[in-house]
Structures are given as structure tokens and as C-alpha cells.
Amino acid sequence: MSSTDILNLFSSQTIGTSSIPTVLFSIVLAFAVGLGIAAVYRLNFRGVMYSSNFTLTLVLMTLITTPVVMCIRESIQLSMGMVGALSIVRFRTAVKDPLDTAYMFWALTMGILLGAGQFLLTAVSGVAIAVLITLVCKWRAKSQNSYLLVLRMTDAAERQAAQVVNGIRFQRLRTKTVSQGAIEATYEVRLDKTEPLLKRLHDIPGMQDATLVAYTGEGA
């Protein structure tokens, strides 16, 4: 077989009704959309440990889903075979934040739409979802200033510290450890300003340490 025959063979190949330029365009577009999803995730991330691997996973999920859907969208046999193959896959990596699952489904949905050739629907839904997620995350960040207040103090300081903490509109005792001559208590609190509370606590005689840690509520 000559080089001309090989070039003609590849140039004549189609996947369903999709030509090779369309396939390449869809894959490049999927990569761009995946980067957009990753950018939205990074912009709105409010956790403690940011994972660059998960961000890369979002890009790869969009990128990989697109050619798979392009391959099976017009073949019932391939569709059934893909369902059977995926049914035996077991994912053992736990998703720590439930919101991360939503980003994964978003990436899969964009890949499916691109693979189905729904470019307009991909653009409209992708932009709409990105805007809505950003607005919701901004509102959530402003409305929920939640912290974990960790107090280490002597027995004599417990009563005054409890009076200060009870003055907070929202507060809930999480843990309390009592040892000989020392007490460690952890509260979930919601505050607009942190400095006044910390100053009042540090002014209490016998207060050894008062620490505020940003709290998202996962694992509660």
C-alpha cells in the first residue's frame, strides 16, 4: 500500500456523520470547556486543601467523554457495549466535598453535549451554569462566616469564657476536654468580625489560647 493510499484511507474515515476536522474541533473545544470548568472550580473553591489533581480531572473528564459520545451516538451495538463495559468499573476514590460531585457531573455533561454536536447548547448551558455557581458561592461565602473556636484555658477562666461565647448569636459546643487544671473546648460560631471576640477572650485571666479556624461544615 502506497503512502497515497494510506492518506486516502485516513481522509475518507468518518465517525458517524462527523468528519475528522469536526472531531478535532470538538476535542479542542472540549479541552477549552474543561479549562473553563476548572477555572470556575478554582475561583469558587472555599475548602482547606486545594487539589490541582482534581482540577486536572475535570479537564480530562470533559476531554475524554467527548470522543466516547461521538463514537457511540449512532451505533446501538457500541452503545450497549459501552454500557456493559462501564457497569463493571468501580471507583474507589472518595469525594470529600459533595460539591465536587456537581463539578464532575458538569464536566461529564459538557463532554456529552460536545460529543453529540450540540455546540450552541454547550455554550449557553456552560456559561449559565458558571455564572450561577459563582453567584451562589459568593452569596454563600458572605452569608456563612462560620468558624471553629478552639479555647485552651484554666478551670478558673471557664466561666468567663462561657459568658463571652454565649453572647454570640449563633454558637454550638462541639467538643470539650477536661484534664487536670486545664480545659480545651471547641465551639462552632458564626461571626461578622473576629477581632473583638478574640480580644475579649484573651483579656480573660487564665486564658491560654484562643484560635479561630475557618469552618465549612463538611463532616459535621
From TrEMBL:
This protein's UniProt keywords: Membrane, Transmembrane, Transmembrane helix
InterPro entries in alphabetical order: DUF4956
Superkingdom of origin: Bacteria
Residue ranges crossing the lipid bilayer per the database entry: 20-41, 53-76, 103-136
Keyword Transmembrane on entry: yes
Protein name, per record: DUF4956 domain-containing protein
Source organism per UniProt: Candidatus Pullichristensenella stercorigallinarum
Phylogenetic placement of the source organism: Bacteria, Bacillati, Bacillota, Clostridia, Candidatus Pullichristensenella
